[in-house]
Amino acid sequence: MLKINGHSRTIFRRYSLDSFPKSQQLFILTIAVFLFFGMHNLLQEAIMNLEGFTFAVMLGYMEVLGVTACSYIERKYIAKETQRKAPIESYPLLTLCLLSSSGLSNMALNYINFPTKVVFRSCKLIPTMLISTIINRRIFSSGEYVSALAVCIGLVVFAAAEWQNSPSFNPVGILLVTLSVVADSILPNAQEQLFSKGSSRLEVTFFTNFFTLLAMTLSTLASGDLIGMIQYGQQNHALWLYMLVYTFVAYIAISAFMQVVKRFGGVTAVLLGTARKGMTLILSFLVFPKKFSWFYVLGAILVLGGLLSSSLIKQGKSKEQNLPSYQAVKSLDQTRIDEDEVKHLSPAK
Predict the structure, then answer these.
(1) Which segments cross the bilayer (predicted)?
(2) How far apart (Å, rounded) are the C-alpha atoms in residues 85 and 88?
(3) In sequence order, what DSSP letters do the residues of 200-269 get, joined into one string?
(4) Which stretches within 74-141 are classed as H helix?
(5) What would the pLDDT profile of 303-340 be if each residue is shown by its tens digit?
(6) CA distance linking residue 92 with residue 168, whole number of Å
(7) Domain ranges of the chain
(8) CA angle (239 as vertex; 233, 240 as ends), nearest 5
(9) What is the C-alpha separation between 111 and 117, in angstroms, rounded?
(10) First vs last C-alpha separation in the chain
(11) Which residues of 13-29 are buried (b: 16+ CB within 10 A; e: fewer)?
């Protein structure tokens, strides 16, 4: 039995992400993020389209509940983690950010339509870069900011036709989704700081969602949303099937996204998330048919162009970092000269 377990662990290590080059790791995680977040968002829109369902904030609650349960099981029984690396006082900020991001954005769906929410939340790339500069001391080029701006503008243009067809600009909804964007911009940078201190993905995922779950349970009980959703589910049993699949898919999607944050940084994760939101708008357009508009084409060009430009800039930076500097080459040449001189001056044996 021990041999079987050992063999299984060997196979697991062999086929883990660490066994692949960085470029392939990013490719695999990108596919996972696009696939599972795409399913996640389609399920979210399908649940919101259920007749009589008005408990948008409970989507965030069920998501946090599922992620907390799954990360606890994976952390304790699969990864065998028993100790926490980051101090417990590191988590209140993450809890506040996650609570605000999830709760406010889902509450906004009671006042604005789904594409409007997607567009507003897609514009967090630039504030994330600014916050990364403040918190993690990262420096971005003007080209990177232009690329990020192109992506954000592209998503706004892409959804402009949706606004024309079914405008839904309730000021309360716009305020809620804007506040969620601010919180969501801080979250990946704060997570990146914990990862730099040695915290695992499972540790950060579990403790952040655990404290968020406690806060959301109290708030949804006080507001009546938790009881209201349970009563709605007693009359419409399809809700529980939707919620079960929704929470499971959300956990896989969030786990893949957290791996991107840990391995490639918060800004890369947000750039990937922004591209994923573009895909979400396309899926929303295909699954829930809408009138065609050239705004969709223009928006797609801006988004893809911005993403391509950003990728080329990152690739150029990576090559520059791998190239030895002039001083390093000069120092190496001088060392070789000194070694040759020593060999020349040493007496022959």
Answers:
(1) 26-43, 55-73, 145-163, 207-232, 238-257, 294-313
(2) 9
(3) -HHHHHHHHHHHHHHHHHHHHHHHTHHHHHHHHHHH-THHHHHHHHHHHHHHHHHHHHHHHHHHH-HHHH
(4) 91-108, 114-122, 125-135
(5) 767 766 776 676 666 556 554 443 433 443 443 333 34
(6) 34
(7) 20-345
(8) 85
(9) 10
(10) 61
(11) eeeeeeeeeeeebbeeb
